[in-house]
Amino acid sequence: MNSKGIKILGLGPGGAELLTRKAWQMLQDSHEIYLRTLSHPVVDQLPDTLAVHSFDHLYEAGGSYEQVYEQITERILELGRREAGVVYAVPGHPLVAEATTPQVLQRAAAEGLPVEIIDGMSFLEPVLTALGIDPFPHTALVDALEIASGHVPPFPTSAPVLIAQVYSEMIASDVKLVLMSLYPDEHPVRLVHAAGTPGQVVEDIRLFEIDRSRHLGLLSVLYLPPLDRETSFEAFLEVVAHLRAPEGCPWDREQTHQSLKADLQEETYEALAAMDADDPAGMCEELGDLILLILLHTQIASDAGEFTIADVLRRIHRKIVRRHPHVFGDLQVNDGGVILQNWEKIKEQERQEGGSESASLLDGVSKALPALLQSQSYQKRAAHVGFDWPDVQGVLAKLNEELDEVRRANDNEERALEIGDLLFATVNLARWYDIDAESALRLANARFHKRFAYIESEAHRQGRSITELSLEEMEAFWQQAKKL
Domain range spanning residue 340? Predict the structure, then answer.
């Protein structure tokens, strides 16, 4: 016998044989039921005495899923306020991959309307049976729509994953493109269709093929086996924490922020050198070394109770989202210059909110940076707020002016000042041509090293020392090296 309030009943994943005893008893005792959808195997087996209504007409009206779920929620609440209440039935379990149940629970609680959940078997149990797997110790459960709306998988690659609602070719295509940002195209996967029903199908295919399946539908689930444990960020966090643990490495336990400063700087320059050499394999290795040092510093801070990796990620996440309102907000900006100006305005607001109203725009540039990089950073920040030459001709004129002042300098103290200004103006010219001055000088250093080494090798080939070569001979070898 129904009473005022809402009963949300789980219809299970298949026919009537998969209904719980309590759910079947509720169906027999009720006179009326509202189904989210008639597209369910159990519908044809419902008691003949039951008046059945559905919300399929809302789906057919063509609105978004969010709009449909809101309309269903509103109607269920309205029916629940009746003296007779309402029995609302959904596929599977009411609290597993069912968007309307949380909305109904939240709004019913706000107005004191009683809600009862009648459990049903979810889609998970028959899917696990079809796959022959145990979801423990950890299996990620993800909605295909969430994956399709992103750019990278929202779970660690070291865990197996069940992806529900892969219900169409379009969704499967979007899902596979996101997954292939981290997983190999040929990664073996399994598609389970209509689990727990007579029409159950399990396909063993490769990731790039999932949108080609002929069986995709409302009851399709993708099983994604894990990659190696070594591929996940979380697994590497455990490695670093283990190194610093009492049973870990004595050397790593002794390290401090100060003792690792030189290593951080060295690994940064090694990564830059790999970039200068256009060496992807080297970049991969050196960026890994950088990540190790970043996580070591984070673990040292965590051990001291200063901050954790969660604090680091939360802070940079919020900062990047906050500084990109044209990407993550409503601001409409397409011009790169305007974007940079807006970036500086946001940073200025952050400084004021942090109690640093009098801080200079340039204070955020580290004084530990190499001189060329620091100079370019100063100039970029000043240019973002409009302190810049109107065109490159002014920069070239300034460069010539500084060179003349070097020539006119009377002593080394004055020359040092003027050469500093000349270098500063040279960095500004590089910035105007969108060239990184630090990288340009490193490349010039590398060229010099290679060409000078050629002179040395030619002298050695002749059985001579480089000191035995005349300037004219060295210049000739230098020119040969340039041609090579």
Answer: 333-357
